[in-house]
Amino acid sequence: MTDILYIVVPCYNEEEVLPETARRLQEKMTALIKKEMVSPKSRVLFVDDGSKDSTWEKISSLHQENPLFSGLKLSHNRGHQNALIAGLMTAREPADIVISMDADLQDDIEAVDQFLLEYQGGSDIVYGVRSSRTKDTVFKRTTAVGYYKLLRALGVEIVENHADYRLMSKRALNALAEFKEVNLFLRGIVPLIGFRTSVVKYERNERFAGESKYPLKKMLAFAIDGVTSFSVKPIRFITWLGVIIFCLSVLSLAWILADKLFGKTVSGWATLMGSIWALGGIQLLCLGILGEYISKIYQETKQRPRFFIDCCLDDRESNL
Q: Does the global pTM surpass 0.85?
């Protein structure tokens, strides 16, 4: 018996590209069904993230014409990551495996075959990774490389050159459902699940039609979410900065007092400079200490699961 595949496609103002995306996905799904790689019950699930154009009307039309296409409409624009998690959580009940991809046709649909082969080989999660960034501008390529290095330096586990083109099995999706974050950064959350993973490299295409829904402002906000959702090192950096400045203020005070004793200072200068350095250092140190406590609260309120069971060598049903 073949597995049921759902392809989840978040959409926001994608009326220009949606007909071509649907045509290509229909061809791919039909071919996969004929080769018996997936079940005839497989579907393409378009998630409308509160679009302001005719995206939902086109999704509705596709559904009426062909039961292969399903639709999910969000009541308000909640952003790409929220639209994606809505689609994944909706698809995880009927589907055995789910592949997420963007609607702009930059993700190579032909890579789906290799995704499925990796899944059949035992992988619960398959990451689609760009083979190169030659089509990016110098600015985007440089900032992307720098961002991945920054995340790794901060201790974030992330797959380089991977966006949200990935396959997940039902048990991987069930594990993902245990994460309760409001500020989602799925590229960082999914690697925390564990289980067996593999990588499929593909050549990323140019956007087929329409405009990018990720201008620089949104990209920066997304990048900040990636850092603040997975690392408390910036807060600890403030603590160490406070310690260093406090130590420097002590040395500065000693130097200022020495100058005062030898009469090398202007009246009042020693007191003013000493108080500025000392208070500044103490304030940063106190902020850092408070930050340590806030970071612990921050981590607890996320309620991330402590572990997932990959294998249980026991005949009894696990309650964990």
A: no
